Amino acid sequence: MPLPIDPNLPSPAEAPMTSSYPATTKQVAGHIDGTLTDVTCTSFSDKILITITQAGRLAQWIHVPLDVSNPTAPDHYLPSTDTEDSLLPMTHLTPKTLLGGSNQERETTGQLYAAQIASLIAAKDPHEKRTVVIGLGLSKFNASREVFYDTVDLVRKCV
After folding, report:
1. Binning pLDDT at 50, 70 and 90, where does residue 77 land?
2. Nearest-CA neighbor of 50 among 112, 122, 137?
3. How far apart are CA 143 and CA 36, in angstroms?
């Protein structure tokens, strides 16, 4: 059971916690579909680790290399100028499930989260080359658009 939150303090999502040793770590929390969700982003020299947990759960691990193996395609790094396309993940990103993904629908949804989060990181810094590793632990599987956008928005506050 989560601890009660003092209403006089800023919400955790509004006040990210940051530490820098041995790797830079940021944490935010917010409610998604009525469930407290914690996001942690840890930047190592070779990888970016992002965990999205509800009730301390981590059920699926996915990695997405940001380094494009085709040097003749520099346009992949440039964010789309079309506002409709800017909501789509970058096409060169290839998420791969490492652990979890108990069924095809969960695995596909997890890879969509991973591709979108990796796209967010690549759009923020087009020169980023590290691999993004994402741990997902959503307590209830809800593939709705609103839950997806709320989750990605919470991650955006952390990266």
Report:
1. very low
2. 137
3. 17
117: CB partners within 8 A, 6+ apart = 50, 64, 132, 134, 152, 155, 159
Identify whether the C-beta of residue 108 lies closer than 8 Å to the C-beta of residue 45: no
Look up residue 149 and give its two tokens. 């956008």
Q: In what helix (H) or strand (E) does residue 124 lie, and over which residues does it extend?
A: helix 104-124
Overall pTM > 0.85: no
Burial of 28 (0-12, 13-18, 19+ CB in 10 A): buried
Kindly tell me if the per-residue pLDDT of 4 is higher than 60: no
Q: For the segment 5-32, what is each residue's pLDDT rounded down to a tens digit?
A: 555 545 555 555 666 667 889 999 999 9
What gap in Å lies between CA 107 and CA 56, rounded to an integer? Answer: 20
Displacement of CA 30 from its chain's centroid (Å):
14
SS3 string, 49-63, reads: EEEEEECCCCCEEEE
Mean pLDDT of 135-150: 88
